[in-house]
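Supplementary Data S3. Sequence and structure tokens for construct A.
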Amino acid sequence: MAVRRRLISVCLLWLFALPVAAGPYVAGGAQWKPYAYEDDNGHLLGVSVDIARRVMQLANLDVTFVTYPVNRLQSMLQKGEIDMNYADARIWNSPEEQQHYVFSRPYSIVNEHLYFLIDHPARGQSIQQLNNLTIGMVRGYTYWALDPAIANHRLSRLETSQDDALIKLLQSRRVDAIAMVDDIFDALVASNHLNPAQFHQGAKLSEAPLVFKLQPQYASWLPQINRAIEKLRSSGELDSIRRHYLPTK
């Protein structure tokens, strides 16, 4: 009987010593085609989504992918309701946010510019030269290059919730220019069958390396995430995924 009790005690101790399976963790992002968007069947896909799924698979992390409007996504991250953002950039974060969160190595790079109609008189001006203009942008996005001009009231902003609404604002001349990631602009022009010759790419706002932004308690994940990114880079799979979604210029 004593031997049996000892065996039961040993088994219980062994069970309690086993690692507890965690997850699925929640990886959030905003919808910005072609990086993260839903198809007609409601399936989430895109450059960042496909890359993130492969990275998490190689890093052996059980992750559920979701999308939210930018403001809600940021609020949920601040409250700890989301474990990571799978398509962020360090330079899109304030100094305080850069200190709080942890960031992976880059897996892609996006460029952001102002876009004007081809006949706008300010289309060739630098940001420092722009004056008395209204810039359209998605609500919740931050463009640090424009902040000084906005703070000095040389520029004003008109915000909307979706990228495609910005194109319509620009075409109707309700804004002087729009701030947008180049790949998103190209995708919107193509999907709406617009003539690209009616637009002009203006001043550059940023060159942003895309990364995974994690809550600080998950800093220990970074080595395995970074290894997965480098494995996909060296195998050519990162480039293959990008080419699948991004138009060839």
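Construct B, processed identically:
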Amino acid sequence: MIRFATTNEGKLHEAREYLDEAVRQLDFDYPERQADDLATVAAHGARAAYRHAGEPVIVDDSGLTIETFDGFPGPYSSYVEDTLGIERVWHLAEREADRAGAFRCVVAYCDGGEFAATPEPVDRERRGQDIAAAERASATTDEQVQEGPLPVKLFEGVVPGTIVAPRGDGGFGFDPIFEYDGTTFAEMETDEKNAISHRGRALAKFAEWYAEAER
């Protein structure tokens, strides 16, 4: 069994489309590390969740990247949405000749062990200082904090698209300004969006690897 560290029922439902009943929710508000890339944030969360639960876990982190802004807002997407709003992000992007963007998601898996070599990267946390003070403070027993390297397997899903003027009433976050194949995510039905979503693509990669690893 795998525990998915999330408080979002929608994410759990999407994960079960790829992992069936092998995945269960872990209601754990792990400390989120500030970093410039999604993989670092997700790997840190997976380590914290594993130390908390003591069993195999997955954590995901996702965001909108805009090429002309060097991948910004990326891992800061939620903060940028809350502070600037999607209209202002669009107004910044519309001035640019290149409005290419992408929704990206990284699923991070940790079970306390090492991993065999595959195309997907492994974050091995080689530096002791990578265990953040906030994570140490959240632990209630010595057993909840494991010192030393704790490998995390990473799986990335990407949906390329274009930043456009807001359209559509569905979805959430930056969905209204992200167009894929002529339709914004906010104009799609939930099932249609999930079928091509960045999280779904990352989960599909993880599910395929996990099925092979379990054999």
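The longest strand covers residues 152-163. The two ends are 14 Å apart (CA to CA).
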